Amino acid sequence: MTIQRIETGPRMSQAVVHGNTIYLAGQCADAGAAPDVTAQTATVLAKIDKLLAAAGSDKSQILSATIWLTDMDTFGDMNKAWEAWASAGHTPARATVLSPRLAAPEFKVEIGVIAAKP
């Protein structure tokens, strides 16, 4: 079975496809992102849409999502963007975890997903 890597760099690939399963690296907002967690989440979700499309899938095929927040008091703010984005009837299994720090101090949310390839 072949392995397809998407947006591969020297440290990691943003997505890896093995068989009919797609693994996305944790996605954060872009450098210089606004501190608003709702806006950062919307940016991250758009990145996820783009990577899933490149892998031949979409958000309705997400099996599992892990969300890291630097402040659990922003859980509701993150969910505003998530609930506006999620496919009704196709929501994945999900966990939200407190992480005191992400890859850069301005990042407040990171999301990683595993999805199926239809």
Give the secondary structure arrangement, pairings included.
Elements (H helix, E strand, L loop, with lengths): L2 E6 L4 E6 L2 E4 L2 E2 L8 H18 L7 E8 L5 H11 L7 E6 L10 E8 L2
Protein name: RidA/YER057c/UK114 family protein
Structure, explained:
- Strands 1, 2, 3, 4, 5, 6 and 7 form a seven-stranded mixed β-sheet that branches.
- Strand 1 and strand 2 form a beta hairpin.
- This protein has a single domain, classed as 60s Ribosomal Protein L30, Chain: A (2-Layer Sandwich).
- With 118 residues, the protein is an alpha+beta fold.
- Helix 1 runs parallel beside helix 2.
- It is built from two helices and seven strands.
- The longest helix is centred in the middle third of the chain and has 18 residues.
- It comes from Rhodoferax koreensis.
Radius of gyration: 14 Å
SS element count, helices: 2
Number of domain modules: 1
Task: Give the uncertain stretches in residue-range form.
Answer: none
CATH architecture name? 2-Layer Sandwich
Succession of helices and strands? EEEEHEHEE
Q: What overall form do the CA principal axes indicate?
A: globular
CATH third-tier fold name: 60s Ribosomal Protein L30, Chain: A
- Secondary structure tally: strands: 7
- What percentage of amino acids are in beta strands? 25-35%
CATH superfamily: RutC-like
CATH class wording: Alpha Beta
- How far apart the termini lie comes to 16 Å
The chain-level mean pLDDT equals: 97
Percent helix, as a range, is 10-25%
Largest sheet: 7 strands, mixed
Secondary structural class: alpha+beta
